[in-house]
TrEMBL record:
The keyword Ribosomal protein does not apply. One of its GO terms (molecular function) is isomerase activity. Residues 476-568, 604-677 form the 3-hydroxyacyl-CoA dehydrogenase C-terminal domain. SUPFAM superfamilies: 6-phosphogluconate dehydrogenase C-terminal domain-like, ClpP/crotonase, NAD(P)-binding Rossmann-fold domains. Keywords: Fatty acid metabolism, Isomerase, Lipid degradation, Lipid metabolism, Lyase, Multifunctional enzyme, NAD, Oxidoreductase, Peroxisome. This is 3-hydroxyacyl-CoA dehydrogenase NAD-binding. It comes from the Bacteria.
Amino acid sequence: MAVDYTTHDGIAVITLNNPPVNGLGLSTRMGIVEGIDRAQHDPAVKAIVLTGAGKAFSGGADITEFNTPKAFQEPTLATVIKAVEGSAKPVVAAIHSVAMGGGLELALGAHYRVAAPGAQIALPEVKLGILPGAGGTQRLPRALGLEAALNMIVSGTPVMSEKLAGTPMFDQMVEGNLLEDALAFARKVGAQSGPHPKIRDRNIGHPNAAGFIQFARNSVAGVAKQYPAPHKCIDAIEAGVLKGFDHGVKVERECFLALVQTPESKALRHAFFGERAASKIPDVPSDTPARNIDKVGVIGAGTMGGGIAMNFVNAGLPVTLLEMKQDALERGLATIRKNYEATVKKGKLTMEALEQRMSLITPTLTYEALGDADLIIEAVYEELGVKEQVFTRLDEVAKPGAILASNTSTLDLNKIAAFTKRPQDVVGMHFFSPANVMKLLEVVRGKDTAKDVLATVMQVAKKIRKTAVVSGVCDGFIGNRMVEQYVRQALFMLEEGALPAQVDKAIEKFGFAMGPFRMSDLAGNDIGWAIRKRRYQEEPHMRYSKIADRLCEAGRFGQKTGGGWYDYKAGDRNAYPSKPIDEMIVAHSKELGIERRKISDDEIVERLVFALVNEGAKILEEGIASKASDIDMVYLTGYGFPLWRGGPMLYADSVGLYNVERAIRRYAAQPNGDAWQIAAGIVERAAQGRGFNS
Ligand code: 3HC
C-alpha cells in the first residue's frame, strides 16, 4: 500500500508512502480516501494529520500515469481533495521538503497546514506544459492573493515555506519535530467545534483584478510564445476570479484535459524524464560505489579549461589549474576573474563569494601539483600528439585511482586511454563552450572505462549541475557526429539554390536558437574547415560541398574576422547578408553546372532535421547512445534544439517515422542524394509502426 494509516492518541495519521517523492498515483489516491473514511468511522479519532514519508510531502500527480487510463481512474485527485475538504474531522497537512503540484493542491484542500522551514512550495505544472488540474489555480489565489499566486502558477518557480509564513497558506511553522507539532496542532483543532476553514470559501479580494490579469496576459504573451500552458493558467485563474470557485474549477479542468494532449506538454515531460533517464547507464547499477572526488585538476587555462575550472569552484570543489607558461596561466586566471566580475555586476554574486571562489583555484606550472587530485580533466590542444604528451605525464604523476578525463570533442578516446597504463581510469568529459554556462556534458565511455569511473563522473556532473549523457566512442560522439550531417545538408542546399539567410531563417522559425550559418560564423568557420580537411584524408568517400572551403580560403572565418557567411560591423553582433558571398555561392553552383532552384522552407527544415534524425538512428543502432531520449537531451541542452519540440528523435516520432522515411527517400533521389544512407532503425520502426520512444 502506498499510504500508511496509524493512530496516535486520538489523531489519525495518514502518511503517503510512495517513494521516491510520494507521487499521487492511483494506489496513493485510493489510500488517502480510505484513510479519510476510516478516520470518520472511528469515534476515538478527533482529527487527522496528512503527511509524507521520506524526502517529500508530495511531488504531485504521478507523471508516469499521464496518458494512461490510471490518470483518470477514480478516485481522481479532485475526488481525493473533495474527500479531504469534506471530512467532518479537521485535516491538518504536515508539510516538509517538497509540496509540489498535486501535492500542494492536496495540502490546500486540508483545513489547516503546518510546515517545516526549507520546504519547496510550488505549482510547477506549467514546466510540464500543463496547469494545476486539481483546484490549484483556484485555491492558491485564495491563500496567497491574486498577484503572488498568479506569479507562482505562471512561472512554476518554487518558494521556500518560510517565505510564506504569516499567510493563510500556513497556520503554523514548525522548527522542531514536524509530526509531534502537527499532532499537537491537530489535538487543539480537534477539540474545537466545526465547521473548519476551507480555502475555497475565502475571498480573493483584489482592488483591480481585471487590470492585473490583463497585465499578466501581456507579460506572458512576450515570453511564452510557443507554449499554450501559461495562457491557460491565466484563463483558469480569471474564470475563478470573475465567476467564482466552481466555475474556475470547471475551466481549469477543461484546460488541463486539453493541455495534457498537446505536443508541447509531451515534449516537456519527455525532457523531464529524459534528463533523469540520462543519468542511468543500463549496465552500471545505481548502487555502484563511486570514488571520492574532493580535489580536481584542470590542464589548460584557456577558454575551455578556465570554464571547466569555474564549474568545480562554483560547486565548492578546489581546483589546481595547470598551464605551461606563466603568462598563459595569468591570462587564464584574469579571464576567470573577469567572468565572475560580470556576474557580480549583474547582482548575482557578491564580491566576497567571488574572492572565495578565486581562492579555491591553485595555479601551477608543474604536473607534480596534480598528484593529489581525484579527478584531472585536460583541455589542451585538440591533437593526438599533444594528448599523448599530457596523458603520459599524467600516468606518471596522478595518484592511483585518480580519474583521468579528456575534454576531446573529436579524438579517439581509446587511443588516448592507451597512452596510460590505466585505461580503466580514463574517460571523456566533453564540455561545451562556454563550459561554465552550457548545461550539456557528454561523458565518453572508452572500451576499458571502469563502471565506477562512470558512476563517479555522473555523480560529479550532478554536483556541477550538468546534464550528463553517456556516449560511446566514435568520431564526434553523439552531438557533433549528428551536426556534421546537418551541416552537410545546409551546404548542399546552398549549391542547389538557397542562400545562408534563407536557410538560417527557416530553421530559426522552426525554433532553433541559431541557424547553421550564423552558428558557424559565431564558432569560427575555420573549425569546420579543419574537420573537413581531416575528413578528406580519412574518409575520402564522404562528399562535402566545397563552398565552405572557398569561404575559408577567402579568410572569412566568421565574426572574429569581421565576415563569414554574413558581413559584420564593428561593435555589432548582427549578421548582415553579404552580397559578395551570395554571389560567390551562385557562381559556385554555375561552376558545378547546377541549375539553381527555389528551395522551400519546408524542405530546408526537413533536410536539416531529418539529417539529425537519420544519424541519431545510426548512433542508436551502434549503441553509441543507449536510448533515444539521450540523443534528445544532447540536442536540447547543447545544440539549441527547441525544447517545445522535445529533441530530434521525439520530433521524428511526432511526424511519424513512416513520413520521415518517405521524405528521406525523396531527398535521396535528388541531386546530392548520395549523402542520404537511410538508417535501418528508421525503416524497421516505420514498418512496425513504432517510434524511437515507444
Ligand atoms: N511523478 C512521478 N515521478 C516523479 C515525480 C512525479 N510528480 N516527481 C519526481 N519523480 C521521480 C523522478 O522521475 C525521479 O525518478 P527516478 O529516480 O526513477 O529517476 C525521482 O522521482 C526523483 O526525482 P529527482 O531526481 O528530480 O529528485 P530531486 O530530489 O532532485 O527533486 C522534485 C525532487 C523536486 C520533486 C523533482 O523531482 C520535481 O521537480 N518533480 C516534478 C514535480 C512536478 O512537476 N509536479 C507536478 C506534477 S503534475 C501535477 O501534479 C498535476 C496536478 O496538478 C493534477
